[in-house]
Amino acid sequence: MESLNEDWRLFCSKLFKIKKTRNGIEALCPAHDDISPSLTASYTDLKILVKCQAGCSFESIVSALGMEGNQFFAQEEKAQPKTIESTYKYEDKDSNHVMDVVRFKPKDFRPRRPDGRFTLEGVTRVPYRLPQMLEAIEEGRTILLVEGEKDCDNLAELGFAATTFPGGTGKWRNDYLPWFQGASIACLPDNDNPGREGMNLLASKISPVTSSLRWLNIPGIPEKGDISDWIKIESNDLDKLKTMVRDDAVQWTSDLANEWEYTIEENDEWAEFVPLVREEEEPRPFPVEALGSTIEEAVIEFQGYGKQPLSMIASSALATASLACQGLADVGRDSQNIGPISLSVLTIAESGERKSSLDKAFSKALRDWEREKADEMKDDIKKSIADYSEWEAKRQGLLAAIKENQKKTALRDLPKEQTLDMKGNDE
Fold first, then answer.
1. Which of 139, 203, 375, 427 is most open to solvent, judged by the fewest CB atoms within 10 Å of its CB?
2. What confidence score (pLDDT) does residue 95 get?
3. 165 and 98 in contact (C-beta within 8 Å)?
4. Does residue 158 sit within a domain?
5. Are 246 and 298 found together in one domain?
C-alpha cells in the first residue's frame, strides 16, 4: 500500500489544475489540449484508476505523462463518447474561420481546428467574435467582456458587442492584447469568487491599452451564475441592461478585488497536506543516476569517505552546480515562466550529521574564486572606501553649514523682543 501511495503522489505531481473530488481528483488531461479538467483518477488498495471524460485512451494518457501503464495503472471502464452540444466558430479580423470551441454534454469544452482535429497546433488564436468586436471599437461602442462564448452569443442577440477567449478568462494570451487597443470595455464577471478573480486579473492585462475600462456586478444573477442566467429571467430586458452598463458600471481599479467579500464555496477543497518530514520504514533509493555522469561520480566518490546519505550529498552538489550556472543560462518551465537556473535547497538533519562540512566541500571552488576576486580588487575596494569616507565628510560638513544658516535666518526674521528671549539676553 505504501508503494501505491508513492505511485499516486508521483502521478499527481505530473498533472495540472488538480482539484480534489469525493472519489479522487480531477485535472487537465495531458493527452489533449484540455481547456477544463476532463481527467478523473482515483486509487484503491490495489490499483490506480484513470479515465478521460473526453474519450482519450488510457494508453495515450500514460504515454503523455511519460509513464508505463503496466507499472501501476489500471484502466477504468471505457468512457462513453460525449455528445456535441454547441460549436462556437472563431474568426480572424477578415472573417476567416480559424478555429472552433466545441461544447460537449456532459459539460466539457475542447478546441478544434477547422479541419476537425482537436488541437490548436499552428492556429493563430484570437478573441471570440473578433470582427464584431473591431466594428464596435471603430464605432466607439462599449464591448462587454464575459466568461464564455454562450454569453457572447446571447448578448449579441440583444444587440451588444461581446467577447471572450478560448477557455475563458483563465486562458489569457499576450497576443490578444493588440486587439483591445483603444477599446471601451465593460467587464461582466460570473457571480462567484473564481469568476471575479479571473476577470479582475484579465482587466489588469488589458487596462494599459483600453480607452475605457469599467466593471459591472449585475444584481440578480444567481450564485455561480452568469449573464446568460440573468437574461433568462423574464423581467430582465435589453433596456435594463443598457441602463446598467451606462449608469452602474464603475471605473476599474487594480484593487477592485478587495471590494467584494471572499467566501469559502462548497467546491473550495484543500488537498491533503503532505508533511515536510515523513517517517518511512524503507526510504526509496535516491535516483543518483539522474544527476548525469559527472555529478553522479562526484556524489558517489564523496560518499565513500564522507558517509553522508546520497540524498544529502546530491542536494549540496546540485545547489553548487545551479549557483555556478545561474548567470550563464535560463530555464523555461513553460512558454511563459522563464528564469535563471536557480535552486533553493533545504537540508533537514540532526546535529552532527556533517551538513556544514559537506556544503563546504562542494562549494570550495566557488568560495576560492570569491576570495581570489576579492584579493584582485583589494586596492580598488580600499580606494572606494576612502572615496566614500571623503564624500561622507563633505556631506556632513554641508549639512552642518545648512543647519547653521537656517538657524541664523530664523533668528534674523524673528521680532526683536523674541530674538532677545531666544538668545537668553532678556526675559
1. 427
2. 94
3. no
4. yes
5. no
Per-residue pLDDT at 67 exceeds 80: no
Pseudo-torsion of CA 312, 317, 319, 324, nearest 10°? 170
| Residues 358 and 402 both lie in one domain | no
**Residue 143 is part of which domain span?**
125-259
Q: How confident is the model over 259-270, as a mean pLDDT? A: 53
What nine digits make up the cell of 359?
A: 556544503
> Which residue, 157, 178, 175, is CA-closest to 166?
175
Tell me whether residue 113 is in a domain: no
Question: For 75-78, which contacts have Cβ atoms below 8 Å and span 24 or more sequence positions?
Answer: 75/49, 75/50, 75/51, 76/40, 76/49, 76/50, 76/51, 77/51
Q: What backbone phi and psi angles, to 5 degrees, belong to 283?
A: -60, 145
89 vs 273, higher pLDDT = 89
What pLDDT is attached to residue 291?
83
Q: Do 196 and 301 belong to one domain?
A: no
Sole residue written with cell 501511495: 5
Q: Is 235 in the same domain as 186? A: yes
Residues 6+ away with beta carbon under 8 Å from 168: 35, 147, 148, 198
Count Cβ neighbours within 10 Å for each residue of 362-398 and write b for 16 or more, e otherwise.
Answer: bbeeeeeeeeeeeeeeeeeeeeeeeeeeeeeeeeeee
Q: Which of 86, 79, 87, 44 is nearest to 60 (CA)?
A: 79
Using alpha carbons, list the distances in angstroms from residue 178 to 97, 126, 127, 209.
20, 10, 11, 8
Q: Indicate the angle between helix axes 293-306 and 355-376, nearest 10 degrees.
A: 120
User: Are 165 and 201 contained in the same domain?
Assistant: yes
| pLDDT, mean of residues 168-189 | 88
Same domain for 293 and 325: yes
Domain count, the chain: 4
Reported confidence tier of residue 77, pLDDT bands at 50, 70, 90: very low
In sequence order, the 6+-apart residues with CB closer than 8 A to the CB of 278 are: none
Q: In the structure, what pLDDT confidence band is assigned to residue 157 with cuts at 50, 70 and 90?
A: very high
Number of H helices, E strands in the chain: 13, 15
Residue 166 gets which letter from DSSP? T
Domain boundary among 243, 259, 275: 259
Q: Is residue 15 situated within a structural domain?
A: yes
Do 358 and 385 have their domain in common? no
The answer to whether residue 87 sits within a structural domain is no
Same domain, 154 and 254: yes
